[in-house]
Amino acid sequence: MDLDLTLVRAFAATAETLHFGRAAARLGTSQQALSKRIARLESLLSVRLFERDGGTRLTEAGERFESAAREALAAGERAVAAAVGVGQSVRIDVWGHLYAPMRTIAQAADALGSVPWEPGPARDWASAADALLAGDTDFGFGRVHPLPGGRDAGLAQQLVRLEPVDAVVGASHELAGADELRPADLHDSTLWCPADPTRLDFMQCFANRFGIARRQGGPNLGVDHLVQHLRTDAACFTLFPADAPLPDAAGLRSIPLVAPTPLYAWSLAWRTAHRHPMLDTLLRGFTEAGRARRWLDYAPERDWLPDADRAKLAVGT
Fold first, then answer.
1. Secondary structure (3-state) at 60
2. Distance separating alpha carbons of residues 298 and 275, to the nearest angstrom
3. Distance, CA of 86 to CA of 146 (rounded, Å)
4. In this structure, is the dihedral angle defined by the CA atoms of residues 105, 110, 112 and 115, taken in order, positive or negative?
5. pTM for this model (two decimals)
6. Which distant-in-sequence residues (6+ apart) come within 8 Å of 47 by Cβ?
7. pLDDT tens for residues 190-206?
């Protein structure tokens, strides 16, 4: 029997989400069309792959088929790449763009040599997780945090860098003359977020931990827009990686935060159902670059991490 990979891909998306509507959305098709593909596959195999009463779940046959189905999809991708003369590329979606994630990837790439990278932009971790689960990208890179409703189930991650962040203020801010600040010193200031603050988990965790009651968000129109807002609003501050240069620092102060120093956690994420052949190579590159640059230095008495990020250190992932 010849397997149609379109049908197999429909099965894989539904097996990941256990929800026909979400699976159809990931595949860019209608729920009716997806259901027809699953029914066609079940007819060809002469087995039921999903139970549909009281929610969607895999049957025993579906559980047996799932791993082999993903292997078939991966083999199909490799076959297409071989036919058109394309090498084993690495598709990696990045987010947290204002914090310049490509700086870290570039340093890991230097340790790896000639890896054919294909970076792609993601809106945020949630959209990157969807792309990973749908097989639309191979890896994700950015700050990873728990998603509502277990949307990140089926994904693995490894922490690769902890980056100190500074407080950035305009020259007219009342704390602009400080050589360093404690996070608690900012409790009377307004935390400016380049998005709805509820969508920026790190900012939310920081503000909650250090008593920053006033939080203001606006559209993410790039770093230039961000710094212009800080120049003109003397009550605002934002957080920015200490190692990331601001494009135009005139009229701004980037002040180190101490006692404790907040750390921004960068992680590599991937889909557990399909182990990409370059995974070990990538992890080696990040490990080598991190060891040389002390990316994972962390002292509990000196540094602060959100609870979810600190847990990654405890389990080594």
1. helix
2. 29
3. 35
4. positive
5. 0.71
6. 59, 61, 65
7. 999 988 888 899 999 99
